[in-house]
Amino acid sequence: MDPRHEEELRKLLEIRAMYAARNGANQIASNPQQHRANPSNPDPMIYPGLYSPSGFDVLSILVRVQRRPNPQYHIGNIDSSIALVLCDRSLPDNPIVYCSEPFELLTGYTQKEIVGKNCRFLQHPYETVKAVGDANLDDSRASPSDPQHPSNDPNIHAKRTIKKAIELGLESQTTLINYRKNGEMFKNLLTTVPVDWTNNEGVEKHYIVGFQIMTAQNNKLG
After folding, report:
1. Under CATH, to which class is 50-220 assigned?
2. What does the alpha-carbon distance between residue 18 and residue 214 come to, in Å, rounded to a whole number?
3. 79, 152, 209, 216: which sits with the fewest CB atoms below 10 Å from its CB?
4. How is the chain split into domains, by residue range?
5. Does pTM surpass 0.85?
């Protein structure tokens, strides 16, 4: 293993042990040498692209989410089955800089199509996204009779909740109407958690982790 990832491995084993203790498990993976000797063993805490392929220390960020003081919302186990995105608050429009594979499967979009966009691109069918443009979806020019007009936006209250939480540096949880790439509508329970810290080089980091869960009410849509 790359020496740069030894610390990530240590953190991974710690958080796995924490999950095991919470679930009443009697055995945990506490031997790093054995873990390295059996890399083919499935591990639900391993994310595809977790280290260098993504360009971000995603594991460290998720550890911070799990260990955050006074969490406002319960997220549950943060493992490789959960759909999530990582957004950079230090950049204009909070673009997505990382997404998990389950998020790709949930939305039908590839990582290449997702990274660089604001999460609101999911609030429009794919054809609308292409017609208006990827960078900014401006609904203000639509007429009141147009489904895309702000007054007809089913997400208007949810978006206000998320925006206010981001501005105040707070967590939020709300339900949004989203669309997969194939145009299929679904209800998405979105939980956002701000993550802020200063790294060893003195650089301030400001991210938002968004956890996406397709709600059970989806069978009532349409």
Report:
1. alpha beta
2. 26
3. 216
4. 1-43, 50-220
5. no
